[in-house]
Design goal:
The chain is an alpha+beta fold. 31% of the residues lie in helices and 32% in strands. A hairpin with a 2-residue loop joins strand 1 and strand 2. The strands form four sheets. A five-stranded antiparallel beta sheet has the order 5-6-9-10-11. Strands 12-1-2-13 form a four-stranded antiparallel beta sheet.
């Protein structure tokens, strides 16, 4: 139950995320920020899927990780792997508990997406950790991504738009945009998805969003 759009443009990164969080009883709230921005380096982490582990919110783990300086001297992929070691036990426990309590699939998976670069990187990158728990135990995917990434079930509402505007889903399109143009495009894509969602009387994500950009 989310829609998050992220992109790498020619001079930075942008992330646009809805604000909806769901509860097992079917209720939802629209006040959750799903974007965490590092202070010292152009790195943004965002979360989709389960966002609370052992009664601690996902961004609290990000803040603790940053303040411990565990990320220093790593490149972006190294940070992704180091962060995995930092949080995976808590993720495992939460997803396993939800699975054993027979909650829906959306409560047994969680993704953390890393966007940006460090002093050890020569270019901006987007890379993801995605955990899912099933009868085989905890599964993990480590996914490199291109310049435009769509996360969450809400991306289904952009299928027709991308079919009609295929160039927008290419790396070449985004690498020619500056940070201001990329921000404007992400806003437009999100609003297109909102319009389609509301037309279908759906509820996958909120109408409101947070948007953060970092230049390099």
């Amino acid at each position: 139950m989310t829609l998050i759009l992220s992109t790498i443009c020619k001079n930075g990164i942008c992330v646009c995320a809805d604000k909806r969080s769901a509860r097992p009883n079917g209720a939802f709230q629209d006040d959750l920020c799903k974007i965490y921005s590092f202070k010292k380096i152009p790195l943004i982490i965002y979360n989709h899927g389960v966002n609370k582990f052992n009664n601690k919110m996902w961004n609290e783990y990000c803040l603790e990780y940053e303040e411990l300086n565990k990320w220093v001297h790593y490149n972006l992929v190294g940070i992704r792997e180091n962060f995995r070691k930092f949080i995976e036990k808590s993720v495992h426990q939460e997803l396993e508990k939800n699975f054993q309590n027979n909650l829906l699939t959306k409560y047994t998976s969680s993704g953390f997406v890393f966007c940006g670069k460090t002093d050890q990187d020569t270019k901006l990158k987007i890379s993801e950790l995605f955990w899912a728990y099933n009868s085989g135990g905890l599964q993990i995917e480590k996914k490199p991504h291109g310049r435009l990434v769509l996360s969450g079930t809400g991306q289904e509402h952009l299928k027709d738009y991308f079919e009609k505007n295929k160039n927008i889903f290419t790396n070449e399109y985004w690498e020619n945009l500056d940070i201001n143009q990329a921000e404007k495009e992400l806003k437009n894509l999100f609003l297109v998805a909102v319009k389609e969602k509301n037309r279908l009387h759906s509820s996958e994500f909120s109408d409101d969003f947070d948007l953060k950009c970092r230049t390099v």
